[in-house]
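Example 9 (inverse folding). The structure is encoded as follows.
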């Protein structure tokens, strides 16, 4: 097995590789962006990419501490579901009030592929090929809908 330090190093190397691969890709507004650390610019709304042992995923997480407000934001996303689909060209999973890995109640919209392992470098090309078009599509989606979230 891997030590904690080795696991951390391998994950860090994956995200550095992903960042280098994505560096020449501009965002929807034609600007340079740090894709692995995508900032939505809206408090409590995050784009999360995960590369783990056993899966890779990308999604939108609503982390507002007030569950009623979280539900309101999630419902707003539901109203925009067709726009998300038009950007991604695929159905994503929608989960209201899910407990994340640290016990926080979050709501998420996610696409996931099982059977890939960030600890196995031979899986990296497939993981990057999964993440790249989806983070670009999320950026396109966010460019269209972000103004509707600024006053929530």
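The amino acid assigned to each position is listed next.
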């Amino acid at each position: 097995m891997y030590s904690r330090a080795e696991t951390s190093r391998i994950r860090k190397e994956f995200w550095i590789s992903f960042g280098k691969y994505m560096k020449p890709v501009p965002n929807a507004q034609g600007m340079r962006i740090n894709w692995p650390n995508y900032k939505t610019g809206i408090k409590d709304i995050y784009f999360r990419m995960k590369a783990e042992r056993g899966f890779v995923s990308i999604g939108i997480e609503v982390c507002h501490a007030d569950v009623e407000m979280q539900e309101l934001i999630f419902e707003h996303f539901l109203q925009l579901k067709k726009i998300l689909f038009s950007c991604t060209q695929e159905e994503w999973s929608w989960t209201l009030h899910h407990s994340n890995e640290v016990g926080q109640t979050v709501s998420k919209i996610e696409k996931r592929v099982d059977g890939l392992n960030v600890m196995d470098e031979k899986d990296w090309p497939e993981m990057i090929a999964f993440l790249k078009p989806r983070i670009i599509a999320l950026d396109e989606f966010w460019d269209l809908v972000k103004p509707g979230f600024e006053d929530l």
